[in-house]
Amino acid sequence: MNTFGTNFRITTFGESHGAALGVVIDGCPPGMTLSESDIQPALDRRKPGTSPLVSPRQESDRVEILSGVFDGKTTGTPIALLVRNHDAHSHDYEKMKNLFRPGHADFTFQQKYGIRDYRGGGRSSGRETIGRVAAGAVAEKYLTSLGITIKGHVVSVHGKTGAQEIESEILAAKNAGDSVGGIAEITAKGCPAGLGDPVFGKLDAAIAGAMMGIGAVKGVEIGAGFAVAGRFGSENNDPITKSGFLSNNAGGILGGISSGQEIVVRIAVKPTASIAKPQKTIDAGGNDASITVKGRHDPCIVPRIIPVAEAMLALVLIDAVLEQRKYRE
Amino acid sequence: MNTFGTNFRITTFGESHGAALGVVIDGCPPGMTLSESDIQPALDRRKPGTSPLVSPRQESDRVEILSGVFDGKTTGTPIALLVRNHDAHSHDYEKMKNLFRPGHADFTFQQKYGIRDYRGGGRSSGRETIGRVAAGAVAEKYLTSLGITIKGHVVSVHGKTGAQEIESEILAAKNAGDSVGGIAEITAKGCPAGLGDPVFGKLDAAIAGAMMGIGAVKGVEIGAGFAVAGRFGSENNDPITKSGFLSNNAGGILGGISSGQEIVVRIAVKPTASIAKPQKTIDAGGNDASITVKGRHDPCIVPRIIPVAEAMLALVLIDAVLEQRKYRE
Amino acid sequence: MNTFGTNFRITTFGESHGAALGVVIDGCPPGMTLSESDIQPALDRRKPGTSPLVSPRQESDRVEILSGVFDGKTTGTPIALLVRNHDAHSHDYEKMKNLFRPGHADFTFQQKYGIRDYRGGGRSSGRETIGRVAAGAVAEKYLTSLGITIKGHVVSVHGKTGAQEIESEILAAKNAGDSVGGIAEITAKGCPAGLGDPVFGKLDAAIAGAMMGIGAVKGVEIGAGFAVAGRFGSENNDPITKSGFLSNNAGGILGGISSGQEIVVRIAVKPTASIAKPQKTIDAGGNDASITVKGRHDPCIVPRIIPVAEAMLALVLIDAVLEQRKYRE
Amino acid sequence: MNTFGTNFRITTFGESHGAALGVVIDGCPPGMTLSESDIQPALDRRKPGTSPLVSPRQESDRVEILSGVFDGKTTGTPIALLVRNHDAHSHDYEKMKNLFRPGHADFTFQQKYGIRDYRGGGRSSGRETIGRVAAGAVAEKYLTSLGITIKGHVVSVHGKTGAQEIESEILAAKNAGDSVGGIAEITAKGCPAGLGDPVFGKLDAAIAGAMMGIGAVKGVEIGAGFAVAGRFGSENNDPITKSGFLSNNAGGILGGISSGQEIVVRIAVKPTASIAKPQKTIDAGGNDASITVKGRHDPCIVPRIIPVAEAMLALVLIDAVLEQRKYRE
Fold first, then answer.
1. According to the model, what pLDDT value does residue A86 have?
2. Residue D107, Cβ neighbours under 10 Å: how many?
């Protein structure tokens, strides 16, 4: 449903054009200093309108802490974070309320619930990630205090690597009224060995579920990932020496448990579904139709997915860190 | 931990060389005919010793239903399935009890628990999947009654496709005392639209977690998967017409919810970690050592992972099918 | 933690004197008409200041729906409900921040978390129930549409029954700077047979946990309750006839599953812990001290616990109703 | 469903007259010595046939550890415990398969599942508690190593206290073909302060749910319990001094969190539903009928419920102990 995690558990809510979005964090360790200024920078990183490569929408997205913090410290009780919605152009969507946008969740929401908030994608909007990013910032602050650091970057866009190549690919797509996909990598340094559970609760399984749970992600790989399919075991096994592992094809996870090496995750991100080119679709009555998705959309979502993916990795790791503590007598 | 699923919930137990392995299934709908003969064929498919391409170990693996079935029908109470262990060559492992096999979970289990059953990999052995496959057979029987069918096949091994190419790659690796990785695809036909939850409980997120939770899997992709990273949105969006979708790049899932199209999943499987070639490692005391993993290992685990991956997909789907029923008034 | 329920799942947050209190409801069936006016009356019933028998505090407690409702109908996505705090007399508590009030959670919160929001009891305040009551109102609306109705009443206060007796007991306690306990009964009519799970998820187990999870409740009984301890089986068994059961000692639940009879629950409510009489306690440094709890406290919490207990019963029942649907093919 | 606990999680299975009963324990801390001889005595305490006061059935109930223990120590992986069924007189039940025994779960199982294993009550039999008691023995062993001890005793039977009075009440009921109810008390000494969560996860809420989840329990109270309803706050609050609390009306739990005092729980146990006297009931076709329940039943279940209630308290406490560890940095 809308809850993620077991020990550090977040529950998000809110639609793109509703009154507000937010998250309740349950299980944050008590005694950590926390204020809005720890969270706001993460929201600022994810918001659009900051470069010609992303959507020109202006989303102010100011976070307010509603509970769980007293005298500047977390108390162990739920931390509710609220972001009010502004700058919603709901009328852009009015015309499309009876059309299912290809590549979007419009059709499947209607099938599942028999009703949907069509304004800005409603709950399936990218704005849903505000709650994740805000909670992730809290998790990251705690992880940092343990020496664990998380970083993401764009690996490639439309098959191209290098900042300039990528920029021109995105702008070309934008100018063509189209969009492009790409690959992002997220890593975590400083994780202790021993995190994760060996069967269904494998750390890599949790990461894969977390990443594929981000809209637009269609593939996840750990360490060498799909490249392992073309290898010999003698190439792929990471030799162990008394100075440590000699390679990291495993991406920091063996048998579902962290090895102490860097954790390395890559995700495949599809081209933004909203494009200005006409596409075939049907209307609510089941009739053939054509749709051109107007609005202020990102020509490539890869750069903006980075803070979300970092947040999800932070959430998985803090959960595993707290879980592992039950083994301490 | 060792439980998977919410509505159709399985809990597995057992080590490679312990007394027994098994699974408890909770939430199986009542009134379905069920006997050992519905489950045994799936176990027979996963067992080794059936061809020169796989391990020559002989594992009889007879399943016994301990509970939850009365007069040949499920009653809605937990179904416990038991498989006794036989043919365990524990002495093969005695020599390695103080060595951490590269690519295996030996090192990380030790880090996590401070103790491990080193015989045959203990709980991290491939034999742990017996419980999954047995439970998956029960799930598949139920899904079949709803018109949902699941199938898996080997896509490639060591970069090669085609039965003969694949066979010779595997035999070559075996003869060299090495192993090879590959890619498998699993599909589900007949799924109704509307399965899955739109945020953290996305159907593709559940599938990704389930697949990455199988030992040796290092990557998961849905539909077009990593290929989306090189595409335009205008290529990748699946057009909708009154006769249905015109393509299936989404792999049957939009916004985390099934669309009614075929669900398509691919997994990257690493080369078997156990190889006969000498490898660098350390012993329990932290000293450098060399290890040659003797035993009767699969030179390529891809063919044997198919029934496991099918089982995991069945478990995800039956869970989603039961979940979706709560929307019916 | 702060989440209750499986299918209709609520997560509450907020402290007595923090910025706000609220709840996120996840799993509410889509398509139900819902507005603030469906929830506000329940909050008005629980609030103090409405009679000389209860606290004179004025809590306006206006609820705002933040998400999950579109065009006046639930959409199946999370419904976040917010109540801003006002009228907080935090300075009343400043003097007591280093004292542990007897009968309160001050001491144990400090032991558990090493930190606590001492203003108005923080998270252990009765105001925490605002989220429960708001969510319960949504659940009750849905249950009513299925013909299930929930009602609570005061059975006795300080051993006395009858409205006038009870009123004079409460006023006498108030005038003495003391407080009194009592018993409340909550019933549900119209429940179908078949709700609840037979082992750990027994419907009465869920109800007992829900009721004992309300602050001040020290006992729970179902049907004949503690009276069964003095009976013969021949008296206590409810005979079954083709016109129905001839008695209801079971309180509507047999073997953990609803029988279709009225569900009958009683709870023992302790006297309000906050009293104006001096009491022995210790301070944060562990020194003996005396405390007199000033403030605007209820001399008897039984009347005000009724809407909370009704809400908890509604939450248990809606969860069971949705759970039972997975048995429908 | 059939799983209890979060950190120390048990899943039970099995019917009275099926092949076997058992339990899978997940989350048991690694490194604890464990063998069948740690568990068997608890099963021997719960079994019938040991005195004229209880059922004369002979149930050998030998437990076998199937997994999770290596070289005499727990490994952190699931511990599966198996008890094969013997001495089942299924033919006793054949005649009653179309009758719903009053006070039993026959009617409600049929309503819920549309099918039931009528032999010996199937899953609703008291034999279902074998899994709980076996798992409880493992939990108790661990708790004992932390200095936490759990004890239960019979408080009263049919309103009478004192061993001789109780014995004669039970024998009188037995001779009359009837049964009697009673009250049991279970306590835990040595619990540290800080266990339990303050809102829905209150320690007393967990205990109440655990106890009411035992068949035949119709009431639960903590500390002073229902007696609080007749008290003043000034009587009921437990004064705190630097030498500790001066009384224990709270039963060791304040605001849902353990205070470090003894935890005190009492349960009301109904008279055994199976009695030899004729009772009114209906058959599967809905026709009026009379039933006389033959078999070897306990005239009073209170003595035999003690080991079960101790087990449930142990399971709640170990779960809370492990949960609390996540607060340790």
1. 86
2. 25
ipTM score for this prediction: 0.97
CB contact under 8 A, D22 and B80: yes
pLDDT, tens digit, for every residue of B144-162?
Answer: 999 999 999 999 999 999 9
D296 is in an annotated binding site: yes
Is 70 exceeded by the pLDDT of residue D88?
A: no
Do C285 and C228 contact (CB within 8 A), yes or no? no
* Cα–Cα distance measured from residue D203 to residue C213, given in angstroms and rounded to the nearest whole number: 8
Give the per-residue pLDDT at C85. 94
Give the architecture (CATH level 2) of A3-327.
4-Layer Sandwich (3.60)
- Give whole-number Cα distances, D115 to C258, D106, D129, in Å: 16, 10, 22
C221–D268 C-beta distance less than 8 A: yes
Q: Confirm or deny that B125 is annotated as ligand binding.
A: yes
Has D274 been labeled as part of a binding site?
yes
Q: Which residues of chain C fall short of a pLDDT of 70?
A: 59, 87-90
C-alpha distance from residue B173 to each of A224, B157, B272, B277, B290 (Å): 20, 11, 11, 11, 21
Task: Say if pTM beats, i.e. exceeds, 0.90.
Answer: yes
SS3 C244: strand
What is the C-alpha to C-alpha distance for residues A16 and A295, in angstroms, rounded to an integer? 14
Q: B190 falls in which pLDDT band (50, 70, 90)?
A: very high
B272 assigned ligand-binding residue: yes
CA–CA distance, A205 with B1 (Å, rounded to integer): 12
From the list C15, C30, C67, the residue facing A114 with the nearest CB is C30
Per-residue pLDDT reduced to its tens digit, A7-35: 999 999 999 999 999 999 999 999 999 99
Q: Residue B259 and residue B44: Cα distance in Å, rounded?
A: 33
What is the pLDDT at residue C244? 96
Whether residues D30 and A325 touch (CB distance < 8 A) is answered with no
Contact of A324 with chain C, judged by CB distance below 8 Å, is answered with no
Could you state, in order of their start, the residue ranges of all structural domains in chain D?
3-327
* Residue B304, helix vs strand vs coil: helix
Poorest-confidence range of A104-113, B41-50, B176-185, C143-152?
B41-50
Q: Which two tokens stand for residue C313?
A: 């019963």
Question: Strand, helix or coil at B141?
Answer: helix
The answer, for B192 touching chain C at a CB cutoff of 8 Å, is no
Nearest-angstrom CA–CA distance, D203 and C212: 9
Chains that touch A (3 or more CB pairs under 8 A): B, C, D
With CA atoms as reference, the chain D residue closest to C274 would be D233
Which among C77, C198, C326 is the nearest to B326, CB-wise? Answer: C326
Decide if A112 contacts D233 (C-beta within 8 A). no
Please report the pLDDT score of residue A88 as a whole number.
Answer: 64
Q: Which residue does chain B place closest to D124, by CA atoms?
A: B77
> Does B91 lie at the interface with C, CB-CB under 8 angstroms?
no
Residue type, B229: A
A19 to C79: CB separation less than 8 angstroms, yes or no: no
Among left, alpha and beta (phi > 0; psi -120 to 50; other), residue C177 is left
Flag if D76 and A327 touch (Cβ within 8 Å). yes
CA-based R_g, chain C, Å? 21
Contacts of A202 in chain B (CB under 8 A): 212-213
pLDDT (average), residues A211-216: 98
Residue A202: CB partners within 8 Å, gap ≥ 6? A196, A253, A255, A256, A257, B212, B213
Chain D environment of B1 (Cβ under 8 Å): 9, 26-27, 78
Does D9 touch chain B if contact means CB atoms closer than 8 Å?
Answer: yes
pLDDT digits (tens, 9 = 90+) for D274-308: 999 999 999 999 999 999 988 778 999 999 999 99
Report residue A278 as tokens. Answer: 């006409």
Contact D325 A326 (CB under 8 A): yes
